[in-house]
Amino acid sequence: REGDEIVLTVMEHHSNLVPWQLLAQRTGAVLRFLEITDEGLLDFTQFRDVLTEKTKLVAMGHVSNVLGTINPIQSVIEAAHAVGAKVVVDAAQSVPHFHVDVQQLDCDFLAFSGHKMCGPTGIGVLYGKLELLEEMPPFLGGGSMIRSVERDVSSYAEPPAKFEAGTPSIAEAIGLGYAVDYITEANLAAIHVHEQELLKYTHQRLKEIEGITLYGPSAPHQKMGVISFNLEGIHPHDIAGILDTHGVAVRAGHHCAQPLMKRLDVIATVRASFYLYNTLEDVDRLCEGLRRTQKLMIRRKQ
Fold first, then answer.
1. Does the active-site annotation cover 107?
2. What is the pLDDT of residue 298?
3. Domain spans in the chain, listed from the N-terminal domain onward
4. What is the pTM of this model?
5. Is 2 helix (H, G, I), strand (E, B) or coil?
6. In the chain, which stretches have pLDDT less than 70?
7. DSSP string of 74-107, one letter each residue
8. Is 14 exposed, middle or buried (0-12, 13-18, 19+ CB in 10 A)?
């Protein structure tokens, strides 16, 4: 309601920002934002200052999709619960990379997507504590989410069925199930160790490139498998385009995190992502591609 506060961070993906903006516009709630340090870490001291009895909800990414920063989500949840606030965790960038236990975290809600974990697009998972789901009204009406229907009133199925109206995404659900099995068999602990080795090696190699700026924590244990960077004097989209011709796939742009781009004082970055299928040789190809990009752009400017 009006005057209630929702706490977010400047690192949030738009999918964990825009919905709360819409809610605030509709109800009169106030959005409060946590800043980050120059190294890309959450300013946790500010978090304790921002939390008050007005705080009703804390919505935070477990891992930044731009910086790779691993947020201290356990401490965040404990501090939020101490003032009576509920916590929504965006785990799209954490669930595919290391073990996440919702009961151990004691989070109120947690969401992640299928396509970030080798699954199909168009499907995701929302976990919620049962007592909270029981209190919430359905947001869609239709078949499968009802217990009984009369002319003037309906009664609803128990959670989670009451939130799943209509024909479900059957093919996508099957694909997501296979993706979960695949990652489980590959072993999340092994995936985590592999990514940490890749991150350490990539940081070492990228620092050898003149004119490069790296964003986010430099210590591998403080982040997951994404590295964002820029090359001096070259637009990120040009970098991505040239790398593509060398068989290296990266993403360039604001990565659905425009407030973070403003905090970094850039219009965009290049983002290299790593997962269980990447190798040290892939990192070498990336670095060689960046050097070729620099040489090409220098010739074009001459």
1. no
2. 82
3. 5-136, 186-297
4. 0.94
5. coil
6. 302
7. HHHHHHHHHTT-EEEEE-TTTTTTS---HHHHT-
8. middle
Which amino acid, 181?
D
Alpha carbons 218 and 234: distance in angstroms, whole number:
23
**CATH number for the segment(s) 5-136:** 3.40.640.10
Q: In whole angstroms, what is the distance from residue 6 CA to residue 14 CA?
A: 15
Q: Decide if domain 186-297 falls under CATH 3.90.1150.10.
A: yes
Residues in the chain: 302
Q: What is the pLDDT of residue 79?
A: 96
Residues 273, 283 contacting (CB under 8 angstroms): no
**254-280 residue pLDDT tens:** 999 999 999 999 999 999 999 999 999
**What pLDDT score does 302 carry?**
63
Which tokens in the block code for residue 77?
């949840």
Residue of 107, 118, 256, 287 marked active site: 256
In degrees to the nearest 10, what's the CA dihedral of 269, 262, 94, 188? 30
